[in-house]
Amino acid sequence: MHTLVAFVRSLIFIMLQAIATILFGVIAMLILPLPYKFRYKVITLWSKFVILLAKYICGIEYQVRGLENLLQTPAILLCNHQSAWETLFLQTILPYQCWVVKKELLSVPFFGWGLWALEPIAIDRKKSSSLRQLVEQGKAKLKAGRWVVLFPEGSRVAPGKLGKFSKSGALLAKESQMPIIPMAHNAGNCWPRNAFIKKAGIIRVNIGPAIYPNTLTTDEIHQRTESWIKEKLPL
Q: Which residue of 31, 52, 89, 201 has the fewest CB atoms within a 10 Å radius of its CB?
């Protein structure tokens, strides 16, 4: 019975999410000529709407610890990756930010259009130049007053586990001399990767204090960030 209820709720959620995505995808194309900050605020409404859908239809709520650790100035946020939920959530709590994403996501109809309007750092991970592109564009975004969000695992990982961390975020922090804000969560428990059914429950999010590069080496920045996320990863 519980499985049937979860299936029906998930079906309703996905249908409404699809309608909202199509609507905002079209809107994103129409407002492309308008200023970035206006586009950002409009597209963020989509993220907030989907988060609310997940709460009221699927019973997915969340608790956050460490919101006070978010700085008033741009920083680099490194987060473990379990589902689509955290990408939506980060859009709702951060000021102007850009994601580091796979280039092919920009080609996804409607969703990709909205993503394009947010001016992400879109990289081709098959190219050897992708790391340098990420660092150079990341520095430019930070200088322009935007946060940079990276998922160092590169792809979604099952709850309770961490994938191999890329050093790209640490390298960006070192070269830009901008702080890293680490974040750990267990969104995959409620919004599993590649799964149709969403599960009711509480997603727990931990946001850590800033890690300042200063005289640290890239390896030291990387180790401190990965260790914090691993230690604070909710189960």
A: 52
